[in-house]
Amino acid sequence: MAEGAYHSQLSARLQRVDKRIRQKLVKWFDNSNKVQIFITGKTGVGKSTLINGLVGKKVAKEGETLDRETSVVTAHRCNHHSVDVTVWDSPGLQDGTNQEGDYLEDMKKKCSDVDLSIYCVSLKETRFFENCPDILAMRKLTNLFGQKMWENAMFVLTFANLAEDLDAKILDADTEEEKVELFQDKVKLWKEVLTGALIKDVGVDKNVADRIEVVPAGHERFPELLDRPHWLSPIWFAALYAMNSRAQPAMIKLNYNRIVSKPGEVRSEDLKKFIDEQPLIFAKRGE
Q1: Which family does it belong to (predicted)?
Q2: d(CA 211, CA 184)
Q3: Helical ranges in the chain per DSSP H
């Protein structure tokens, strides 16, 4: 076969393959119109700010908390940009509830098929040790949902906008560059602590635990952190990468207008990374 004819046939085959893949991706994108997020952490840890930031709409009132005696998981629901969003809010395990059996049964019934699990830990925490409330809660969640709980999960360090006030080393740093470095070291240390706790104290597979992102979050009125102009951008993209692939297009739709109209909330490096790595998202589906 002549070289020209060979290349012509190869090109035609590639076009057919490309067309099939594009059709599958378009169908995947069009059919993704629902996001379910499970979020947990102690009462007062700042989950409402995080929920509203991820959804792009105020669906949870600031300061809104569950009664620590409740045995019902609270749902925040909305339809935003034609995407049905449900955020299951569960602070009871860390706070202690006298109706834990009912609480766990309710949680398993409602939250067994979520797209993303977010575990919030406040940067105000100074002690994280074996059998502390958070580690006990992680064990209960793992016993309830299995390793699946952590396969589409991320940790968020809340109140990171207060890092300078909470850490004397950062406060006393001589330069802004040193403050940034110390802040980033603090986040890395939390990554080591949380990953280590999952592996050693909770029994999560190391390969699963190592993949979990640990991202700092601030407050909607104080978006700037020591090393970034807006805390939301890295969290939004970390959530996009961590979540179940079926909900990724819906997550994009949910925040597309914000990416376009509020570039200050989306760091250019995060957007570039997403664009460069889009094939990795598609590859998760075996395409």
Answers
A1: Belongs to the TRAFAC class TrmE-Era-EngA-EngB-Septin-like GTPase superfamily. AIG1/Toc34/Toc159-like paraseptin GTPase family. IAN subfamily.
A2: 18
A3: 3-30, 47-55, 92-95, 100-111, 133-145, 148-151, 163-166, 168-171, 176-197, 206-210, 232-242, 248-261, 268-283
Sequence-distant (6+) residues with CB within 8 A of 82 are: 33, 253
Tokens 């959804």 correspond to: 55
- Tokens for 5? 């004819």
Residue 114: Cβ-neighbour burial (10 angstroms; 0-12, 13-18, 19+): buried
Ramachandran sector of residue 82 (left: φ over 0; alpha: ψ -120 to 50; beta: rest): left
Contact in structure between 215 and 154 (CB atoms under 8 Å) = yes
153-158 and 116-122: which strand pairing?
A: parallel
pTM of this prediction exceeds 0.70: yes
Task: State both tokens at 284.
Answer: 């998760």
172 has which bridge partners?
none
User: Cα–Cα distances in Å, from 149 out to 7, 230, 235?
Assistant: 48, 28, 19
Identity of the amino acid at 140: K
pLDDT in tens, 243-261: 998 898 888 888 777 766 6
What is the rounded distance in angstroms from the CA atom of residue 54 to the CA atom of residue 32? 17
Among candidate residues 105, 109, 75, the one with its CA nearest the CA of residue 90 = 75
Taking only the tens place, the pLDDT of each residue in 7-45 is 466 556 545 546 666 666 667 777 789 999 999 988 788
